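Q: What would this complex look like in 3D?
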Amino acid sequence: QKEVEQDPGPLSVPEGAIVSLNCTYSNSAFQYFMWYRQYSRKGPELLMYTYSSGNKEDGRFTAQVDKSSKYISLFIRDSQPSDSATYLCAVRPKTSYDKVIFGPGTSLSVIP
Amino acid sequence: DSGVTQTPKHLITATGQRVTLRCSPRSGDLSVYWYQQSLDQGLQFLIQYYNGEERAKGNILERFSAQQFPDLHSELNLSSLELGDSALYFCASSVEQNTGELFFGEGSRLTVL
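A: Here is my prediction, written as structure tokens for the whole assembly.
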């Protein structure tokens, strides 16, 4: 079993739709949770960073973490064509020097 | 622009050869990470350095090595290249050594023929 799993998509939605991206992880030692966005031919960029269960909102983006289910979600409201990218969830244990582990990513296309 | 600079952007070489990829972290960042991204494997952690010292090692092959220099730039050396080493190689940096807030460069695309 991979440490972090995501549905690879591709996911295609019309402009203005609410998008739900999901991720599961296997190890309860993971305490920090991130979402990165990667445009084609570019490096990933950090979107959201959280360490607790519950919701964290930033503009049109909401990250949701359920540690009991080992489940992470990213919601995008009023999706725009500029949101078309691959979304990578990432996790990290609390201990020092440990690597950040990325999921395989979900490819999203927002159609005008 | 993340502030992380990687060179070269593209590299085409032959099997058996050796290449060096270079990374300059964001100003003030002490920690450098190297990742490999391929279509079938996703983003795989290779190695992390903090202020010149190796801190964590991932799925890095013995044919690969890295170092971080006193000026904090880092180099990833890939030797005895195989077709399967063709991938995007990303460098990322962060202020602290154990944060998930990584700032990625635009990557070096390596093609081994």
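A: To summarize the key features: The interface with chain A takes residues 2, 4, 33, 35, 42-43, 45, 48, 50, 55-56, 58, 90, 92, 97-107 of chain B (CB under 8 Å). The longest strand of chain B covers residues 42-50.
Q: Very helpful, thank you.
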